[in-house]
Design brief:
Layout lengths: L4 H13 L2 H8 L3 H15 L4 E4 L2 E4 L1 H26 L6 E7 L1 H6 L1 H11 L3 E7 L5 H6 L5 E6 L11 E10 L1 E4 L9 E2 L8 E4 L5 H12 L5 E5 L3 H9 L5 E3 L1 H4 L7 E5 L4 E9 L6 H12 L7 E2 L1
Parallel strand pairs: 3-4, 3-5, 8-12, 9-10
Antiparallel strand pairs: 1-2, 5-13, 6-13, 6-14, 7-11, 7-12
Helix pairs in contact: 1-2, 1-3, 1-4, 2-3, 6-11
C-alpha cells in the first residue's frame, strides 16, 4: 500500500481524539489537511475509512482495523530509528524537546551544557510551549521529549503510549506583598480569606490544583486576576495586587521584592520528563533522559 507515516498518524489520532478538528489542533494541521490525509489513505486502501453521521464523522470497521495496524507500523518505524542509532559508534542524531518557561530558564541550559560535553554529535532542538500541551505534543510526535508538570492533587491522565518520569518534587509556598504577613513564618490557606489571589485559569492543571487545596482548607480563593505567565504573576505580587503560590524554581524566573511564607498545607508539583514508550530504548533518548535526571539544583525539591 502506498501511504505515509503522516497519513497513518492522522488516522490513529482520530481514534484517540474523536474529531477532525481535535486532530488538526494536536498535529498542527488545518481540519482540511487532516481530511486530505484520510482521503489519501482511502485512495491507497480502496476502502471507506470514515463515514459522516449527521454533522460528525465516525470510523468504519475498516478504519478501526487500519488504525490498529497503523499503531504497530508507527511503532516499527520507531524501532527502526532505534536500531539505526545503535549501529553508530557514538550517541548522535536530533531530538526535539518541548518545555515550559521555568524549565527553559533553569533545567535546559544545564542539560545542554552536559550534552555538549558528553555527546557532541547529539543535536537538541527545543521549543517553548504551554505546559498543559506538553503531553499531547509528545503523543502526536510534535516533539520527541518534553519537560512537563504533574500535580498530585490533579494528576494528568496517563496515556499508555507515554513514559512519564519524575525529576523533582517541589512544594509550594505563598508569595505575598512585602509586609502583608510580617512576622509570620508559616500561614494556612484560610489566612488568605480577605486577600486577593492571582492564579491561572481554573481550566489549567495548576489552577485546579491550587483551588482544590484551598477548598480542602475551607477557602474559596478570591481570584481577581487570572494570569498564566509566572513572571507576570510575580510582578503583580510585588506591586501589592494580590497573593499567589510559588515554588523555588518559579522564583528564579524574575527578581522580585515580596515576601515568601511557608504554607501549612502541602501543595506540590512534580517536574517530569515525558517521552513515547516506543522510543524509550533509543540511545539518544536514553542519553538525554539520563542527563536530565542528574542535573543538580533545578529547584529545592526532592528527586525521585
Amino acid at each position: 500500500m502506498d501511504w505515509t507515516s503522516a497519513q497513518l498518524r492522522s488516522l490513529v489520532e482520530l481514534t484517540r481524539r474523536g474529531t477532525v478538528t481535535a486532530v488538526a489542533a494536536a498535529l498542527g494541521y488545518t481540519p482540511g489537511g487532516v481530511s486530505q490525509q484520510i482521503t489519501a489513505l482511502e485512495r491507497a486502501t480502496g476502502m471507506e475509512l470514515l463515514r459522516r453521521v449527521g454533522r460528525r464523522v465516525e470510523m468504519t470497521d475498516a478504519g478501526l482495523t487500519l488504525a490498529r495496524h497503523a499503531e504497530r507500523i508507527l511503532a516499527t518505524e520507531a524501532e527502526a530509528v532505534e536500531a539505526l542509532e545503535r549501529s553508530r559508534d557514538e550517541i548522535s542524531g536530533v531530538l526535539r524537546v518541548g518545555l515550559f518557561a521555568t524549565a527553559a530558564v533553569e533545567i535546559l541550559p544545564r542539560a545542554l551544557q552536559r550534552v555538549r560535553i558528553s555527546h557532541p554529535q547529539l543535536t537538541v532542538r527545543s521549543q517553548d510551549m504551554d505546559v498543559d500541551d506538553i503531553y499531547d505534543a509528545v503523543a502526536t510526535g510534535d516533539v520527541d521529549l518534553a519537560l512537563g508538570l504533574d500535580y498530585p492533587d490533579v494528576p494528568i491522565p496517563r496515556d499508555p503510549t507515554l513514559c512519564v518520569r519524575k525529576l523533582y518534587g517541589e512544594r509550594f509556598s505563598l508569595a505575598v506583598p512585602a509586609g502583608t504577613m510580617e512576622g509570620r513564618e508559616v500561614v494556612g490557606l484560610a489566612d488568605t480569606r480577605d486577600l486577593t489571589w492571582i492564579l491561572p485559569s481554573a481550566e489549567s492543571y495548576y489552577g485546579r490544583a491550587v483551588r482544590t487545596a484551598c477548598r480542602r482548607a475551607g477557602l474559596e480563593p478570591d481570584v481577581q486576576h487570572v494570569v498564566t505567565d509566572t513572571a507576570t504573576t510575580l510582578g503583580l505580587v510585588e506591586a501589592g495586587i494580590g497573593v499567589s503560590t510559588v515554588t523555588d524554581l518559579m522564583l528564579k524566573l524574575r527578581s522580585s521584592r515580596f515576601d515568601v511564607v511557608a504554607l501549612r498545607e502541602t501543595i506540590e508539583r512534580h517536574i517530569v520528563v515525558v517521552f513515547r514508550a516506543s522510543a524509550e530504548h533509543r540511545p539518544s533518548m536514553q542519553a538525554l533522559v539520563d542527563i536530565l535526571q542528574t542535573v543538580p539544583g533545578a529547584g529545592q525539591g526532592t528527586p525521585e
